[in-house]
Specification:
alpha/beta; 2 domains; seven-stranded mixed beta sheet; globular
Length: about 260
């Protein structure tokens, strides 16, 4: 088991009121799995991601990765957000090299590795462009290439395609699914889009709000190459819709 979350609890105070972001959340993730955290706003999915990435601390419970307590961010784990976080004065190549500069690589090694991942995300010949010369989808590709270039073991993604148009979003879904399979990376992906979760995930962690908790964990019985219009895909999607309509507040073991 690569990731182990046990009885994770996290609270915030908003406007003088206490808000339970995570309520005794327990989750295990195998190495190489693609996990989607799916749920409405306020269900704790981004909070859980930030705890896993080491950006936030729990009040109680534990989070371990490879058997070690998560004490903070690590170069073995990278996070890709909805806002691309690119430096506008740097070219595509220099943005991708950013994380490599602390690894002690030579200029030539950095350039070679950056080129590999720029090609991987489909931006060949865009190395010398600056972020403002790119579309939103292209900027997100640069962000993904920058993260992959440091060869992380785990990729955390917080609604990375949420600001993109539908066609670009679907293309990037195809790309990140192929990359995760080919590069054998563990991916934890936050989304509120049911179809996106069904398309990407090995398992979907369905979360509910007030307090933030896991309602169900659903294994997605679909092949790596998925057809958004296929009968099996639509069957899984409809079952997830049903889960959100169930009134039970207790954890549900759900099989499709």
């Amino acid at each position: 088991m690569q990731i182990e979350v046990k009885d994770a609890c996290k609270r915030f105070k908003l406007g003088g009121k206490e808000f339970v972001a995570l309520d005794r959340v327990t989750l295990s993730v195998e190495r190489g799995e693609f996990i989607c955290l799916l749920g409405p706003s306020g269900c704790g999915k981004s909070t859980l991601l930030n705890v896993l990435a080491g950006f936030e601390k729990l009040e109680s419970g534990s989070v371990k990765i490879d058997g070690e307590e998560v004490a903070g961010p690590s170069p073995k784990r990278i996070t890709i957000f909805q806002n691309y976080g690119l430096l506008p004065w740097r070219t595509v190549q220099k943005n991708v090299e950013l994380g490599l500069e602390s690894l002690g690589l030579s200029k030539e090694e950095r350039a070679e590795r950056a080129k590999k991942y720029i090609d991987l995300v489909g931006l060949t010949d865009f190395e010398k462009r600056h972020p403002l010369q790119l579309s939103g989808g292209q900027q997100q590709r640069v962000s993904i290439a920058r993260g992959l270039a440091v060869d992380p073991e785990i990729i955390f993604m917080d609604e990375p395609f949420g600001a993109l148009d539908a066609i670009t979003r679907m293309k990037l879904q195809d790309d990140i699914l192929n990359i995760s399979r080919n590069e054998k990376k563990t991916v934890i992906f936050v989304t509120h889009d049911i179809e996106e979760a069904v398309f990407l995930a090995d398992r979907i962690v369905v979360m509910m709000a007030d307090p933030g908790r896991i309602k169900s964990i659903v294994k997605v019985p679909l092949p790596d190459q998925r057809d958004r219009t296929g009968e099996e895909f639509l069957h899984v999607r409809d079952k997830i819709f049903e889960l959100f309509n169930l009134k039970s507040d207790s954890y549900i073991e759900y099989y499709i």
